[in-house]
Design brief:
By secondary structure, the chain is α+β, with helices and mostly antiparallel strands. It has one domain. The chain contains 2 helices and 3 strands. A hairpin with a 3-residue loop joins strand 1 and strand 2. The relative contact order is 0.23.
């Protein structure tokens, strides 16, 4: 699963999420929003960026199980 697939999946289920990059700091992803706060967030080094998509889906499933029924 790609990051765009994961974000599209969460968006379709009305689950807010986001990501931020910093050129040598890898990627930070989160579920939640800036107005209400992040429910969870995680950082991934450049070598692990591919794991971010699955993390988003796994955490969203854990936090909002009824959205995935």
């Amino acid at each position: 699963m790609t990051l765009d697939d994961a974000i599209a999946m969460l968006y379709a289920r009305e689950i807010n999420s986001g990501l931020e990059t910093f050129w040598d700091g890898g990627l930070k992803v989160w579920i939640g929003d800036t107005m209400n706060g992040h429910d969870v967030e995680a950082g991934f080094g450049i070598e692990d960026v591919g794991k971010a998509a699955q993390w988003l889906v796994d955490e969203a499933t854990r936090l909002y199980p009824t959205a995935f029924q």
